[in-house]
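Re: that backbone. C-alpha cells:
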C-alpha cells in the first residue's frame, strides 16, 4: 500500500510558539530540524561539535533504496563465528567491549525470529515508500542537487557460490518493489571498465543515488536551517530531565528549558536516554573510510565487493572506500589493521599502487534488529527519540525527520511506526 504523508508545512499559532530542542546535529538531527522548522516550530539544535562531524561525516554516501531487509537473521548469526576468525572479514569485536554486547546479543537473537523479521521488513518498506518524496523536498529546498549523483549502485560477487546464495535476497527485495538487474562479468565491465576485480556476477540497483560529499550535504541543510532563523548551540549536553510540560537540558556552562526535546545523538544516545529512565541495547559499530589519491575518474557509480563488505563511492575528492563493522567503545583508538585490510581490498578492486590520501573512523548507532528507534517516549510524551539508524542513517534521514515532525505535532498519519518503538526491546 502506498503511504501518504499529510502536508503539515503550514504552521499553526501554537506550533509557532512551541520551542523544540534537537540534541545532535548529524544527518538525522539536521533533517528533524528541517521538517520541524518547516512546520513552524522554534527549533534549537545542539551539538558538541560543528554539525555533521559524527558518523554522518564519513559514510559511503548511498541513499540505498535496496536497504529494506533487517540484518538480524539466523543465517547471518551462523556466519558470525567464521567472520570473527577471518582477519580479512569486515567484522571484529574488541574483547574489552563484550560486556556492553550482552544485552545487544540476546536481543539480536530474539530479532532473528520470523515474526520480528517480518515486522521490521514491513516497517522499512513503509519508510522507503515515502523517502523518495521526502529526499526530493530536502534536496531541492536546500539547493543540494549538485551534491547528489544518480547512477545506481552495483553489488559485486567474486564467487558463483556467493552470488547464487544471495539470489533469494534479490527476489525478496524485488518483491518489495526494488528495481534491480542481475549482471554477468561482461555487463559489469561495460558499466565499470576500470574495475580489476574478477566477478562471478553482480546486482545492479538503478534507483540508488549517492552524495558526492556527505559532509557538505549536512552543511547545506544546516545553512538552510540557519537562514530560516534556526538557532545552533555548540555545547555538550550532559544532563536531561523531563516533566509534564517542559524539558531541561544542562551543559557544563548553561541550563536550557524547552517545550519538547528530540534526541538524535546517534551512537552517544544510550547513556543520555538512560537519564530519562529508558534502557536501549544500542551499541557502537565503528566503520572506517579511506579517501584514495588520484582516483577522480575511475568509477562512474558506487560499487561494493559484497564478499568482503567493502564499498567504493566516487566522490568529489576521489574514491571513498568505506566499510568495517568493528564493535568497540566509541572513543577507542582506530585500528591500523582495519585500514590495511580495506586498502588491500581496494587495490584488488581497482588496481595495485593506489595510495591513501586520508582515513577516518566513526561510530554507527546500531540496534540489535538493525532498525532505528523513531518514537515518542511512553513516560515522557514531550521527548521524541530518533537514533539507531545503523547502516541506513543517510538513506532514512529525510523520512525520519518527517516522521519526527508528525510525532512532535501529534498529527495522525497512516505511517506505521510500530516497528521502531522504543519498547520493542522490553
Ligand atoms: C563507514 C560508514 C559508512 C556508511 N555508509 C552509509 C551509507 O552509504 N548510507 C547510509 O544511509 N548510511 C551509511 N552509514 C550510516 C550513517 O552514516 C549513520 O547511520 C548516520 O550518520 C547516523 O546519523 P546520526 O545523525 O544518527 O549520528 P551522527 O552523525 O553521529 O550525529 C550525532 C551527533 O550528536 C552529537 N552528540 C552526541 N552526544 C552529544 C551530547 N551529549 N551533546 C551534544 N551533542 C552530542 C555528535 O557530536 C554528533 O554530531 C555509514 C556509516 C559508516 C560509519
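Recovered sequence:
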Amino acid at each position: 500500500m502506498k503511504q501518504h504523508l499529510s502536508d503539515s508545512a503550514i504552521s499553526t499559532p501554537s506550533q509557532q510558539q512551541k520551542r523544540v530542542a534537537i540534541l545532535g546535529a548529524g544527518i538525522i538531527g539536521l533533517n528533524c530540524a528541517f521538517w520541524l522548522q518547516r512546520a513552524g516550530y522554534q527549533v534549537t539544535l545542539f551539538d558538541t561539535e560543528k554539525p555533521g562531524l559524527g558518523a554522518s561525516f564519513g559514510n559511503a554516501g548511498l541513499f540505498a533504496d535496496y536497504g529494506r531487509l533487517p540484518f538480524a537473521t539466523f543465517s547471518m548469526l551462523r556466519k558470525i563465528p567464521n567472520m570473527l576468525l577471518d582477519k580479512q572479514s569486515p567484522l571484529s569485536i574488541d574483547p574489552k567491549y563484550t560486556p556492553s554486547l550482552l544485552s545487544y546479543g540476546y536481543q539480536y537473537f530474539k530479532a532473528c525470529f520470523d515474526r520480528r523479521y517480518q515486522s521490521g521488513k514491513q516497517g522499512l518498506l513503509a519508510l522507503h515508500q515515502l523517502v523518495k518524496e521526502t529526499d526530493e523536498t530536502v534536496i531541492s529546498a536546500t539547493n543540494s542537487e549538485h551534491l547528489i549523483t544518480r547512477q545506481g549502485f552495483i553489488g559485486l560477487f567474486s564467487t558463483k557460490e556467493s552470488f547464487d546464495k544471495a539470489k533469494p535476497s534479490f527476489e525478496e527485495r524485488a518483491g518489495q518493489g526494488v528495481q534491480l538487474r542481475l549482471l554477468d562479468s561482461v555487463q559489469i565491465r561495460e558499466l565499470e571498465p576500470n574495475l580489476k576485480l574478477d566477478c562471478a556476477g553482480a546486482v545492479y540497483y538503478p534507483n540508488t543515488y549517492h552524495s558526492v560529499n556527505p559532509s557538505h550535504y549536512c552543511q547545506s541543510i544546516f545553512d538552510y536551517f540557519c537562514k530560516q532563523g534556526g538557532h545552533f548551540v555548540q555545547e555538550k549536553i550532559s544532563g536531561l530531565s523531563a516533566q509534564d510540560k517542559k524539558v531541561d537540558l544542562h551543559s557544563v556552562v548553561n541550563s536550557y528549558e524547552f517545550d519538547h526535546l528530540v534526541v538524535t545523538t546517534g551512537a552517544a544516545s544510550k547513556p543520555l536516554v538512560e537519564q530519562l529512565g529508558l534502557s536501549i541495547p544500542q551499541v557502537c559499530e565503528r566503520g572506517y573510510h579511506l579517501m584514495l589519491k588520484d582516483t577522480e575518474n575511475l568509477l562512474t557509480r558506487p560499487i561494493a565487493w559484497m564478499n568482503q563488505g567493502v564499498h567504493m563511492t566516487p566522490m568529489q575528492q576521489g574514491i571513498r572506500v568505506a566499510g568495517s563493522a568493528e564493535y568497540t567503545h566509541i572513543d577507542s583508538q582506530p585500528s591500523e589493521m582495519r585500514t590495511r585490510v580495506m586498502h588491500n581490498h581496494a587495490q584488488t578492486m581497482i588496481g595495485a599502487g593506489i595510495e591513501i590520501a586520508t582515513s577516518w573512523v566513526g561510530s554507527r548507532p546500531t540496534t540489535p534488529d538493525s532498525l532505528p528507534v523513531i518514537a515518542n517516549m511512553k513516560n515522557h510524551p514531550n521527548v521524541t527519540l530518533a537514533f539507531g539508524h545503523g547502516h541506513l542513517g543517510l538513506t532514512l534521514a529525510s523520512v525520519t525527520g518527517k516522521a519526527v515532525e508528525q510525532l512532535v505535532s501529534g498529527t495522525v498519519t497512516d505511517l506505521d511506526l510500530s516497528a521502531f518503538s522504543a519498547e520493542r526491546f522490553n
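Residues 73 and 114 are 8 Å apart (CA to CA). The mean pLDDT is 95.
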